[in-house]
Design goal:
This protein is of the alpha/beta class. The chain has three domains: about 5-175, Rossmann fold; about 240-410, Rossmann fold (3-Layer(aba) Sandwich), CATH 3.40.50; about 420-620, Rossmann fold (3-Layer(aba) Sandwich). Helices cover about 35% and strands about 15% of the residues. The chain has 20 helices and 18 strands. It has a six-stranded parallel β-sheet, sandwiched between helices. It has a six-stranded parallel β-sheet with strand order 9-8-7-10-11-12, with helices on both faces. The chain has a six-stranded parallel β-sheet with strand order 14-13-15-16-18-17, with helices on both faces. Helix 2 links the parallel strand 1 (about 25-30) and strand 2 (about 50).
Length: about 625
């Protein structure tokens, strides 16, 4: 078999195995050395593909697609520095347990360290952030070689899905010629006599590639497709359930923390997973008498489940020092990741006597307060149900404890509602989030950027009955890849999606607008334009830095025209002024990609946040 045919056969065998394992989407960046991989992917109608000139945007698009779908997404790029642009998204995927598979094409070993163009050391390019790395070498001929290519695909998918989901990296070397030679056309004899001018050469014909055939041929053993969530989580041990139930009954002043959920945190990852999780935690709260502190991305803030014990305004409550210090918990059950607001970590650290149980089936070491809490790596739904069933009806916590949290939440909610009135909140973000939550339909997918957007959603979004699912890149908590992640999530979920982002995060990933194939994603982007990094105005260091230095080195106003940037990529853009216009735009959204821009006054926004915290503290002290 010639080299080009061998390259293509290997690529086809690898792709065949990935599809068999459940791959649904591939993010491809243009390049030469990756040609066999690209052609092996685009000839398969089972796959959807998107094309990204910016590999960093491609990687975050794949991250969003995998997070929303619960299935590994594929990345393909050429050799050299191209794969290095994947690193930020690889880090996020590793930190947040998102399954990704990166295929980086490479020069063969004999061309490395020779000065060959577009050749760098790609061995373990992503360091310790991958669940599995394989330097596959160059394709070699033999039946074993084709079986090897298929096994690479099957193992890559299995490694990406578990036991701890995350990114996988295969480095694939291809020798030239990269593809089979095109068939030759018989030459025509030249006519005799006088000839006119030689005709201009036309474009070179594309090589004719034989249609796909499974690399192992007829009779090859077929393996079952991997389940969407990789595997079911272990059920909780009955003895453990008995012990925890006894602990809850003996600790009437307890809390349930519903932290951010990863894409594969609920087993099985199906449409029924989140509703079942909500019902299980609501039942546990009712049986224990514990309030639920509910982060928006934790699944319990929004939905048709019993929300009578859900505390949405916990952040404002915990800023009130006198009230916070008087609320000493005895037991804390945390489901999902640690909370975004540092006030929660500070509250737990201030009460070291409280026993903490960290329920996490993916077994992350997520304990920034170093509480020494016990980690429970089992099915969270089964655990919550088992505990609710074991708790006696007479042991429903301390009514005074639950009432204190409910009254504080109501007081904080009144302050938020008053300050979020559009006439009061003019120039700030406070009116945006209640308006957004009121306009989103059942089944909406909402992605929020890091820095202030994720925090402001927490501060200003009320708990509502509608089924709204929130996604956020909190693994490494960067602003990079925000737009591409949302585009990928919209495509992966297959439903209308809204992104709320600041101007810096939007501009940081502007190339995400240029993805070919992203037009199939139904995404509405709300850009809160405060002309720079608004979060820095809320940090203590802001008061210690002179205004000119603060503006230049921290706020960093980009001076960019977002409407013109959207026009560059042919994306619809609209400026929004006021709650009525935003509600109308949200309810009458066109299908596809659209950007809504809202101007925010940084100084007015900062003042309103401080008014919120001060007013909430006064309400609670009364």
């Amino acid at each position: 078999m010639d080299t080009g045919s061998l390259n293509l056969a290997w690529a086809r065998g690898l792709v065949d195995a990935l599809i068999e394992a459940g791959l649904g989407h591939a993010c491809i960046s243009p390049g030469s050395r990756s040609t066999p991989l690209t052609l092996a992917l685009v000839e398969r109608p089972e796959l959807t593909t998107s094309v990204h000139i910016d590999e960093r945007s491609a990687a975050f698009f794949a991250l969003g697609q995998a997070r929303a779908s619960g299935r590994p997404a594929l990345l393909v790029c050429t050799s050299g520095s191209a794969g290095a642009h994947y690193l930020p998204a690889i880090i996020e995927a590793s930190q947040d347990r998102v399954p990704l598979i990166a295929l980086t094409a490479d020069r063969p070993p004999e061309l490395r360290d020779t000065g060959a163009w577009q050749t760098i050391d790609q061995i373990k390019l992503f360091g310790g952030f991958t669940r599995w790395f394989c330097e596959a070498g160059a394709p070699f001929e033999a039946a074993f070689g084709l079986r090897y290519a298929r096994d690479l695909g099957l193992r890559a998918a299995a490694s990406a899905l578990g036991p701890i989901p995350g990114p996988v990296h295969l480095n694939l070397a291809f020798r030239e010629p990269l593809l089979p030679e095109p068939p030759t056309t018989p030459t025509q004899p030249e006519p005799t006599g006088i000839r006119g001018p030689a005709p201009r050469p036309g474009p070179a014909a594309a090589p004719t590639i034989a249609p796909f055939e499974p690399a192992l041929g007829a009779g090859a053993p077929k393996r079952s497709r991997l389940p969407r969530a990789g595997r079911a989580f272990a059920p909780p041990d009955p003895t453990l359930l008995d012990a925890i139930a006894e602990g809850i009954a003996a600790a009437p002043r307890g809390l349930i923390l519903a932290g951010r959920l990863g894409p594969l945190e609920l087993a099985p990852t199906t449409s029924a997973g989140l509703p079942a999780y909500r019902e299980a935690l609501a039942a546990l709260a009712a049986a224990s008498g514990y309030p639920i502190l509910a982060e928006p991305a934790g699944g319990l803030r929004f939905g048709p489940h019993d929300r009578s014990r859900v505390i949405a305004g916990y952040e404002a409550c915990l800023r009130a020092a006198a009230w916070r210090d008087a609320q000493a918990p005895q037991l804390v059950l945390r489901f999902g990741a640690s909370f975004t607001w540092k006030q929660v970590a500070g509250y737990l650290a201030a009460h070291p006597g409280a026993e903490q149980l960290l329920v996490d089936p993916l077994e992350r070491w997520d304990d920034p307060t170093r509480s020494g809490g016990r980690r429970i790596g089992c099915d969270p739904i089964a655990l919550a149900r088992g505990l609710a069933e074991r708790l006696p009806s007479a042991a429903a916590g301390d009514p005074g404890w639950l009432d204190a949290w409910r009254r504080a939440d109501a007081a904080a909610g009144e302050v938020v509602a008053a300050l979020a009135e559009p006439t009061v909140a003019a120039g700030s973000v406070a009116w945006v989030y209640p308006c957004l939550i009121a306009a989103l339909p059942d089944g909406a997918l909402l992605q929020v950027a890091n820095s202030m957007a994720v925090r402001d959603l927490d501060s200003f979004a009320p708990a509502v009955e509608r089924d709204i699912q929130v996604l956020v890149n909190r693994g490494a908590a960067g602003i990079d890849g925000t737009l591409s992640s949302a585009l990928g999530a919209a495509l992966g979920a297959g439903r209308p999606t809204t992104l709320v982002t600041g101007d810096l995060a939007f501009l940081h990933d502007l190339n995400g607008l240029g993805a070919v194939g992203a037009e199939a994603a139904d995404l509405q982007v709300i850009v809160l334009n405060d002309a720079g990094g608004g979060i820095f105005a809320h940090l203590p260091s802001a008061a210690s830095v002179d205004p000119e230095t603060f503006a230049r080195y921290f706020r960093t106003p980009p001076g960019a025209d977002i409407a013109a940037a959207c026009a560059t990529y042919g994306v619809a853009h609209r400026r929004i002024a006021g709650a009525e216009a935003l509600a109308q735009a949200l309810r009458q959204r066109p299908r596809g990609l659209q950007v809504l821009e809202i101007a925010i006054d940084l100084e007015a926004n900062t003042r309103l946040h401080r008014r919120l915290w001060q007013a909430a503290a006064r309400q609670l002290s009364d």
